[in-house]
Amino acid sequence: MQTLSRRDLLKGAAVAAPATLLPALAAAVPAGDDAELLARVAVFRDACAQLKPVRAACNAAYEAAWEQAEAEGLFPLPEGPHGPRWERFQAIRAAHGSPDLYDAQMAAARAMREAAAAVFALPARTLPGVLAKLEIVRLAYGDGDGTGDADILEAQPFEDDETWLDLVLADLRRLAGGTRS
């Protein structure tokens, strides 16, 4: 039996909450106060949509290059990351477009991290704003289809070394206390 850490339980609750509790609450609250935040969330969604096909193409190109290299008997690479076998493997990768696709994937992931930082830099002023922040967490972690990347949110300290969860909880506390920032 696997035991979940407190952090894993909190993450699960934060990702599950948008699908259960908050939509009903948020529907009753206008999101006009969070127009800037929602615009930033839209930028994040666009960045996420751009990353998924690039990542799939990058993975496919690398796998095709690897299969070709195996078929040519290049592995193992006894000389490590240099020598004629390594150079041939790099040429195969280049022929499949793997290096360029990798660069494109890294650029798309960087755009997604920057968009996430922009979202979490603004406090949510309404429940729809909190919901939008939680929805991008789900997008960042993925839907179990292998397209998520926890590093989009986890590897990035936000302001004052806070995590995305710290910031969302602060938004909820502020809203529950009736204060706005």
Properties at a glance:
single chain; 181 residues; mainly alpha; 8 helices; 70% helix
Overall shape: it is: elongated
Q: How much beta, percentage-wise?
A: under 5%
- The low-pLDDT segments are none
Count of extended strands: 0
End-to-end span in angstroms? 44 Å
C-alpha-based Rg, rounded: 21 Å
Instruction: Tell me the helix content.
Output: over 70%
Q: Spell out the helices and strands N to C.
A: HHHHHHHH
Explain this structure to me?
This protein has 181 residues and is mainly alpha-helical. Helix content is 70%, strand content 0%. The chain is elongated, with a radius of gyration of 21 Å.
Short recap of the structure:
The protein is mainly α and 181 residues long.
List the helices and strands and how they pair.
Blueprint: H1 6-20, H2 22-27, H3 35-71, H4 84-95, H5 98-121, H6 127-141, H7 151-154, H8 164-177
